[in-house]
Structure formats: structure tokens, C-alpha cells
Amino acid sequence: MGFLHKAFLLLFILSLATLPCFVFCRKSHGRRRLFQNLQPLEGSRLGETVTGLHKLKHYLARFGYLANAHIATGPGEDDHFDDHLESALKLYQTTFSLNVSGVVDAATLDLMMEPRCGVPDFFNGSVPGIGPRWAILPGRPKWPADKQSHLKWGWLQPNFPFYFAEPSVIFAIQKWAYVTGFFFIEVPFEQHKGADIKVGFFKGAHGDYESFDGPEGILAHAMFPTSAFVHFDIEENWSVYKSDDSVDFISIALHELGHALGLAHSKVKEAVMYPKFGYGEQKRELTQDDIDGIKNLYP
Ligand SMILES: [Zn+2]
Ligand SMILES: [Zn+2]
Hints:
binds zinc ion
């Protein structure tokens, strides 16, 4: 597909996005909250033993708040609320500007059950980056200067399932290119093994650090430079039309590409790099926080 053809397709799709939802939206899939098995834990606090508390430990470990060493392995799950769990919960509450009670309160549970990016918020128990808002990883993984003039990206599958996927990723790439000065080159599927950023749709377990989980829960995830990839959960109700029953593909592509360039999660709720993302939400423009973060990495 030539550049002009792609540009026209993108313009066409973006113009469709302004039409009323009833024209295009798929039937509601019925809201379900993936992490709702945490709900019975409301009110749990230090010193208590509560059936199912190990699920909270696994949740906090999954996103980098609790070291795996503090979760019992093997038969018999650990349902005791210890000091490590309280510290992890307080870190979670601090990160998301909740009341730092160390108690599993309703507001904390509500936020935990929201759809989100699968990339952890913290790595190896340490706070990534130096910014109090935007963040980068310890060691500052980034693309070397010689890559920035020709960063290659390509699809992992020859036929992606949504017609809007390619122009949406190109739209998101252009947003990052504008603020970094990077020059991105799309390689054809036959050459995707040579791409620096490999992009694709997957379902369930697909051979990397995290399995996808169907609608809501984890929406997508990515890997940082220089072994970057961007994976989308094929089972989400993706769309480029604003609707409470779909998740905005362009917004998530913009977020995941931020990881592929080296950004971690931001604490700023309005930022593209904030880890939570609700159905019906749209974030298609980089905020000052996102720009400050990427410019710190690529001055
Ligand atoms: Zn993310
Ligand atoms: Zn993946």
C-alpha cells in the first residue's frame, strides 16, 4: 500500500470516528471486570488471614508492587496479610493517589479492577526512572542514535484482524516521531524478523512474559528497547469510534509505542503513559508529561 493510499485511508477512518456510535458500534459485550475475584477481600488489613488473599498478592506482584519472593509457592497459598503485603498495598495506593491506608478499601479495589496495560508499574521492586510523574526504567534502555534515523517496525502477522489497525499504528507512530525526531520505516511482513519494533495481535498465552485474558483486564503490553514489541489482546472490543463498549485502539497503540521507545508508566492520570485505560476513553494526543519523559530519554 502506497503512502498516499495509507494517508487517505487514515483520514477516512478518522472522519468515521466522528459519526454517531449507533452506526458502527458492535453490540455491547456486557461489562465484566476481570479482576473482580478480588472483591471479597474488601476490608482486609495487616495481621488478618483471609481466604483468597493470595490473589491480591499475585496481582500486586504481577504489576511490580510485591517481590515474588514474598509470595508462597507450591501447594497451599499464603492468605496471611503480612508486612510485605501492607507495604506493597501502600505503594499501590501512593502511586494512584489513593488514601494510603494499607487496608484493602473499596476505592483501591475499584481501581485494581479497571482495564490496564500489562507492563508492570515497577521493576524489581525499585521505582523506575527519575521523574516524579513520567518514568523510565533503571539503566535507561533506549534506542541508540544510529537507530533513530531509521527505526524499523513491522507486523508479526501477514493479515491483521482489524482494518483500522495499520493506519491507527501509523497515526500513533507519527505522534511520537513528531516529538522525538525519529524516522520510522514500516517493513513488509516478509521482512518482519528484521524489524526493531514488532507489532501484532495475540490471544491467551503467546510465548512471552504474560498471557492475554480476554475482554478488559489486560488490554495490551509491550517490551522496551532494544528488543521491543507491541502486542494487542485480540479479544478486546477494539474500535476507533468512541463508545462505552469498546476500547480505543489508537490510544492504546500510542501508549504501547511509548514503551517500545523506552517510557515506563506515568503517575499522571491524563498522560498517555498512565497504566489504566477505561472502555470509552480516548487519549490520542501526547500530554506535556509524556513529552517531558521522552525528551529526557532523547534530548
Ligand atoms: Zn503500559
Ligand atoms: Zn505478548
